[in-house]
Design brief:
Length: 165
């Protein structure tokens, strides 16, 4: 909690903008970073800086919302919200300075002696193309707004669990 008693929320865009749809997380984070957020909420485009995110998670956060491209989860452009628990984090993984996927970041966090925030979520989008090249495919690009809305809704619920804003 921050000094006002509000939860501290980290919103992390993850992905490589030079690999097509893998740039989904950074694009959503870019759109969200232009919005006003209450104290205690931080929105960051981590891109491929997984080690940076792992180190930032050594600070106490109440909620982590990661945004990333996800493969093989259904129809291209489908946005899913997944809850991540301690059982999803691998142990014994070596620290990877360029690891960018959520599993690698969280395993790196564990290797550094850190722990998941009490609530950890992944907002992912089923992608079509992650080969070399910049820009999102049309269906993934169309899902950016839906993902941004999902992040705003999740953050609002975390800050105001009783529904009173």
């Amino acid at each position: 909690m921050d000094g006002s008693g509000r939860p501290r929320v980290l919103v992390a865009g993850i992905g490589n903008v030079f690999r097509g749809d893998d740039g989904f997380g950074p694009e959503v984070a870019r759109q969200l970073s232009g919005l006003p957020w209450p104290d205690g909420v931080r929105v960051v485009d981590y891109g491929i800086r997984g080690l940076h995110l792992a180190y930032d998670l050594l600070d106490p956060w109440d909620v982590l919302v990661m945004i990333d491209a996800i493969p093989d989860r259904g129809r291209v452009g489908t946005v899913a919200v997944l809850e991540i628990g301690a059982g999803h984090v691998g142990r014994g993984t070596q620290v990877d300075a360029h690891g960018m996927d959520p599993a690698t970041v969280l395993a790196t966090l564990a290797a550094l002696g850190g722990h998941l925030p009490p609530r950890t979520l992944l907002i992912g989008c089923q992608v079509a193309e992650t080969g070399d090249g910049m820009g999102l495919t049309p269906l993934v690009d169309a899902a950016v707004g839906e993902a941004a809305d999902a992040v705003r809704s999740l953050v609002t619920r975390e800050l105001h669990p009783s529904g009173v804003a």
